[in-house]
């Protein structure tokens, strides 16, 4: 077995712990989600052998196919990609988490397709915090109304927010975008929602995200290498 993925996981783990210390976050308050989209099963098996449990997938059918393999049955699957109505059944059946809900229609389908013997699907609402036309997600003022509409869907458990801000190498600009997500999260909690998850930060901006309260960072390239074309 190659040791590259194990080495990369250790490096990312150190970056997370160092950022927690630097920004006065509690130790182990930030969870690592290894983004395994387009990666072969062998890479996931190697990551699991090194202690990684949570994996993020962008393509519902690919996630479903991987989740059915015996060698990775113990993995925790997070669906993090844009959601199409005709793909929700795979997500409802095989995911533990979904980070990209941004429409009531999708939320209702996930609720209806989650079987009664499964625990509730853990949900983050995706926020288009930089208001980019090329990205999915709710505008900030659309989040509260959708949360209220979803509150009766008992097969879903709303945990928090996910965001992918506009790409920039400027650390302070990264922090400002993530701060807007955190402020929205805090406002929602002040209005009675018991949110505990901020899914934000990737390979090139995870420190800024941790500085602004991220509880889960989504790392792919720095663990598995460049994305494969599909």
In short:
With 230 residues, this protein is α/β, with parallel strands linked by helices. The chain has 9 helices and 8 strands.
Q: How would you sum up this structure, described in words?
A:
This is Pyridoxal phosphate homeostasis protein. Pyridoxal 5'-phosphate (PLP)-binding protein, which is involved in PLP homeostasis. Residues 12-227 form the Alanine racemase N-terminal domain. By secondary structure, the chain is an alpha/beta fold. The protein is built from 9 helices and 8 strands. Helix 3 (60-67) runs parallel beside helix 4 (88-94) and helix 4 (88-94) packs across helix 5 (104-113).
Task: Provide tags for this entry.
230 residues, alpha/beta, TIM Barrel, 41% helix, globular, Pyridoxal phosphate homeostasis protein, PLP-binding_barrel, PyrdxlP_homeostasis, pyridoxal phosphate
Count up the domains: 1
Number of helices: 9
Mean pLDDT: 95
Please write the string of helix (H) and strand (E) elements.
HEHEHEHEHEHEHEHEH
- Corresponding CATH superfamily: Alanine racemase
CATH topology: TIM Barrel
Strand content: 15-25%
Q: Identify the overall geometry.
A: globular
Low-confidence stretches: none
User: Major sheet, described briefly?
Assistant: 8 strands, parallel
Q: How much helix is in the residues?
A: 40-55%
**Class by alpha and beta content:** alpha/beta
* Top-tier CATH class: Alpha Beta
User: Rg, please?
Assistant: 17 Å
Please name the CATH architecture.
Alpha-Beta Barrel
């Amino acid at each position: 077995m190659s040791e590259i993925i194990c080495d990369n996981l250790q490096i990312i783990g150190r970056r997370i712990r160092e950022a927690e210390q630097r920004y006065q976050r509690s130790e182990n308050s930030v969870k690592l989600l290894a983004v395994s989209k387009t990666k072969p099963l062998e890479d996931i098996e190697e990551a699991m052998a090194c202690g990684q449990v949570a994996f993020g997938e962008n393509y519902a059918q690919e996630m479903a196919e991987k989740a059915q393999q015996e060698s990775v049955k113990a993995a925790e699957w997070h669906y993090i990609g844009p959601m199409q109505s005709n793909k929700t059944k795979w997500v409802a059946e095989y995911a533990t988490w979904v980070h990209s809900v941004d429409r009531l229609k999708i939320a209702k389908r996930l609720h209806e397709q989650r079987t009664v013997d499964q625990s509730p699907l853990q949900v983050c609402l995706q926020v288009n915090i930089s208001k980019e036309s090329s990205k999915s997600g709710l505008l900030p003022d659309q989040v509260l109304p959708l949360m209220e509409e979803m509150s009766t869907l008992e097969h879903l458990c709303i945990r928090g927010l996910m965001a992918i801000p506009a790409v920039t190498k400027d650390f302070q600009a990264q922090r400002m975008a993530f701060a807007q997500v955190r402020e929205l999260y805090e406002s929602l909690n002040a209005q009675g929602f018991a949110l505990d998850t901020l899914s934000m930060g990737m390979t090139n901006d995870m420190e800024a995200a941790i500085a602004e309260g991220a509880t889960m960072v989504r790392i792919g390239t720095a663990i598995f290498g460049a994305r494969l074309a599909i």
